[in-house]
Each structure stands twice: as C-alpha cells, then as structure tokens.
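Database export, one record per block. Field names are fixed; values are copied verbatim from the stored entry.
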Amino acid sequence: VLIAIGRDACTRNIGLQTIGVKINEKNGKVPVNDEEQTNVPYVYAIGDILEGKLELTPVAIQAGRLLAQRLYGGSSKKCDYINVPTTVFTPLEYGCCGYPEEKAIDQYGEQNIEVYHTLFWPLEWTVPGRDNNTCYAKIICNKQDNNRVIGLHILGPNAGEVTQGFAAAIKCGLTKELLDETIGIHPTCAEVFTTMNITKSSGQDITQKGC
C-alpha cells in the first residue's frame, strides 16, 4: 500500500492578502520570478510554498542562502531549480538530476536530444541470485550543445550516492564525450554511466549478460 499524502502550503491565514501578495487559490502556493520575488517587489518567498518548485529541504536552504547573498552581499547568483539531485529511497532506490525525458523534449525538441540507456546487474546481486536486468540507467543529452548531459537517471542500489556525485559534474557542464573518457571503477553501479553506447532511438537490446 502506497500512501502519498503530499504537503499543504499554509499561506492563506498569514496576511498575504493585506499586502496584495498573490497565491494560487487551489493549493496556496506562491508564484515567484527567478529571483524568488513575488508580485509585490519587496516580498520574497522560498522553500516548499513556491509554485512549480521542488519540495526539498536542501533546495530551500540553498535558495535562502543565495537570496540573502543577493539582498545583502552584492551577489547575483540565483538558485538552480533544474539540476537538483533527488532520490526516492524505496527498497530499490531511484535517483535523478536534471530534466526528465519528457520535459527535455518539451524544452529542446525531440530532434535535439539523444537518450542513452541500459539495464544493468549489480555485482552484489549475483551472489544471492537476484533477477538480472532489474536496474536501469539513462542519460539525456542536448545534441545542440556538444551533447551536454541535461538529465541523469538511475534505478538501482545506492542511487542516492551515485546521483550526488554526478550532480556536481552536471553542474560543471558534463558531456557524453567526458563520460566516455572517464575510467570507470569496476565493478560499481556508477560505472555504467561510463560505458553507455546504446541510444533509445536505435531500438537496440539493452539487456546485460553479467555484472
């Protein structure tokens, strides 16, 4: 049984209407611009109450830190809400950073992206004899920008640890060529990102015969 109760944005009873701050009446979320500024120029909002943004504590902390630096430290850095590493800590973890495939297509056009993917079999699963090809990894590349990696997804053991490491590389402009040039650590799950050579568009078989 999976229960997803969600979160409520408790913004209706804090006086926002008094100063004219607009909220989404359906969910209480607050629309802001790319600097977390509401429709009232001197009022800013950060964290889980933002309309269309991620409900993650580290995102709120980063956004708050950057906002303080912009307001009082002369900085111009804005929070990156796209390249955020995220993990779902289910028994088989799922990790991602950047765009999902559907949003990448909407943003860049299907003809401008290339998707590399593979199934894989973690070494620690070979001893207990767990099912092969249960784990999955995928990267989404922007062909118009030197095959820059704009999305990374992994379903497998320790996905959170893997995703956290690659998130820094994505922030640095990771490309498919750089992944290909990276020597993998064998036998790790993360190694799979350095050996991908099958595109989704090719329709080729992505099953693996060993770890």
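Remark 1: Residues 74 and 91 are 44 Å apart (CA to CA).
Remark 2: The radius of gyration is 20 Å.
End of record.
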